[in-house]
Amino acid sequence: MSIEHYLAPINPDIFGFHPTETAVTLGSHIDTYFDTFPGIPESGIVLLGVGEDRGAENNAGCAKAPDEIRRCLYSLANPCEETRITDLGNLIEGQTADDTYYALAEVAAEVLSHNNTIIVLGGSQDLTFALYKAYANLNRIINISTIDARFDLENDDLITSRTWLRNIIMSNPNYLFFHSNIGYQTYFVGQPYIQLMDDLKFDAYRLGEVQHDMERAEALIRNADLLSVDLSAVRQSDAPANGNPMPHGFYGEELCQMMRYAGMSDKTHCLGIFELNPLYDNRHQTANMTAQALWYFIEGFYNRKDDNPLIHPENCKHYIVRMEDEGTDINFHKSKISDRWWMEVPCHNEQLQILYTDQLMLPCTYSDYQQAMRGELPQSWWRYYTRLNKQ
Prior knowledge:
Blueprint: E1 7-8, E2 30-32, E3 45-50, H1 65-74, E4 85-91, H2 97-113, E5 117-122, H3 127-137, E6 142-147, H4 164-169, E7 176-184, H5 186-189, H6 191-199, E8 203-206, H7 207-212, H8 214-222, E9 226-230, H9 252-264, E10 270-274, H10 285-301, E11 316-323, E12 328-335, E13 341-344, H11 350-355, E14 361-364, H12 366-373, H13 379-389
Parallel strand pairs: 2-4, 3-4, 3-5, 5-10, 6-7, 6-9, 7-8, 9-10
Antiparallel strand pairs: 1-4, 11-12, 12-13, 13-14
Helix pairs in contact: 1-10, 2-3, 8-9, 9-10
């Protein structure tokens, strides 16, 4: 399949400098679609700009973000000698938002089918729905994590930046297995939606919980095939470029830390950065912060450890914890390479066990192991177990 007809080349004048002028810059290690289409690599990082904001809630103008982020990203220092990135340019806007979703799903599916990791520079967060459809096109069951102050579960069949998650959950057939929200703020969510997330057996952690325990964020992100970031989850003082600015939220340094977690995750092959609106940016502050966060993702990507116990059990120490009250054992695995933890979640249906093979090893933290040693069942294990065995 040729995806070139969906894509437009980048005008090099946006940079104010030629991105290959200096060997130490990241831009000199990016094969960019200027005049000649670079093609799709194998097992690399692929950048794609998507300037679509017709589904944005109170944030029209975020369609201009992709080139703003590029300008800052290309000028950063190259994180490592192995860096090789392909920039496919910008997706051509469809006649309708649905046309854009369709095109993005087609392009992303083709990129993912070549074992690449795709970074989408948005645009509004409803584009996450199209990235989900890319996995659906490939018949892949996925987990989605979001860094977001809201749940985006509003009840509307129209896909917007506030309804896209509901539309994914309601899709039939459905390829979403698990969802995690990182950093929600209760006054934007409300108890009915918190209860709904609990009923669905999805993970949701408040902003303060995550800031107090960033290892929890690492485990949630490590479990994600697709990570969707709403930049309004970063506090306005660090990221003013949004029509829905937040006085409270993550610090820029915390976003960078989570992006490195995502880069180092062997499972995460799709990252979307959304809702940056250049109309509100103060001296490119948010664009620079976003570029630096992406730099950490790239640096993490080239430090992946390939230590998943499902693939390399020989690289792990194994622990069995007997849960007397539950009448079950939990098998924990600790990587000898990275010191990261996983716990096995059994599936009692043989057909589902085959279907959800990649979901049977749940990333966790040392505190989950300690909790189990005290005889307490980790909540994340229970939610996962329930979803696996009540499909």
